[in-house]
What we know:
378 residues; Rossmann fold; 4-stranded antiparallel β-sheet; 12 strands; binds adenosine-5'-triphosphate; transport; ATP hydrolysis activity; ABC_transp_ATP-bind; ABC_transporter-like_ATP-bd
Amino acid sequence: MPTDAADTAAAPANPLLEVSDLRVHFRLPRAARRRARRAPDLPEEAAGIPRGDTVKAVDGVDLRIAHGETLGLVGESGCGKTTLGSAVMGVRPEARGHVRYRTAQGRVIDAAAPAPEDVAVYRREVRMVFQDPYASLNPRMTLLQIVGEPLRVLLGVTGSELEDRVAAILARVGLRPDHLRRYPHAFSGGERQRVGIARALVPGPRLVVADEAVSALDVSVRSQILNLLQDLQAEMGLTYLFVSHDLSVVEHVCDRVAVMYLGRVVELSPTAALFARPLHPYTEALISAVPVPDPRLRRRRPVGPPEAAGARRDRRERIRLRGDLPDPSAPPPGCPFHTRCRHATDRCAAEVPPLREIAPGRLAACHYAEELSLAGAP
Ligand SMILES: Nc1ncnc2c1ncn2[C@@H]1O[C@H](COP(=O)(O)OP(=O)(O)OP(=O)(O)O)[C@@H](O)[C@H]1O
């Protein structure tokens, strides 16, 4: 019998991070609101002009991440992935709800409202790897300054100890430790991303939010960085929230995947199950567009016989999503996906489907998830 998401056994019992009823709503600037009021019945093709006055970038998300797990967060551009990641980092003042993190000492910090003494602990233990290795490194700082800054600011490390620790982490991410005094421009995109990873890991975090961490890299470099992230995870006992629009990458590195659509999680499943048999029509469409896997990527965990997901996907038709992502300031009533869903009925236009447990460990927000899952069985 399906149950509500809040009661489900789909999530780990003692999570490292628990996000509950997280909402990040952005009020649009006044000019955009004026335009919207002047043209309330804009045709769909007049996209780009918001029709509402608020964008619900994240709208009631519940997630739990277990220690040592990699949770993928996927969805089209604009569905709220980055906003959710930044709310987890505690840098979204608009965030409402809870982001509860269990520290190494076993205390719980709410990133949405940390006590003053917890701010530095959170910044040390929860770190971020950014997408763009060019924009995210200050070109006027040396590697020693860039990577050393969190050690200096968060842990008060200085002098030769600072140099030693920076050199050690540079070596660990595959860079030459004697390059301490070089500037970012001397490095390639892949090397810069290694610097970004070193900067994230140097104060000894436990949770890392990787936001499109390999999207800006050449395909050949991408697999090296992903393999590095997986090695570091095993070695340092890291937990990852892995934000990506690239499902082929997510398939290789994640234990579970949360699929977002217009600010909500519409499916949450273990990776192998999600790729073998998606429960939500949106997931099904995203997966049908995934290209053949990159053979250079190591799999984090075996996902069944080699024939499994890839071959099944080859047999599956490519599903073209109708139209673009709706205006996020005026989402459709009922199921937010119904305007693009090939299975939608009148019920979908009227009733919001709750995120509920469809099978053990698997949640979906679709009125017809059970039927679709059976119909889509390979
Ligand atoms: N500061 C902001 N003010 C107003 N709207 C915002 C702001 N930041 C994000 N948004 C809107 O919130 C929605 C979600 O954006 P977000 O960047 O989180 O999506 P995303 O899935 O990460 O997309 P992408 O992959 O393109 O970064 C979008 O409609 C975006 O335009």
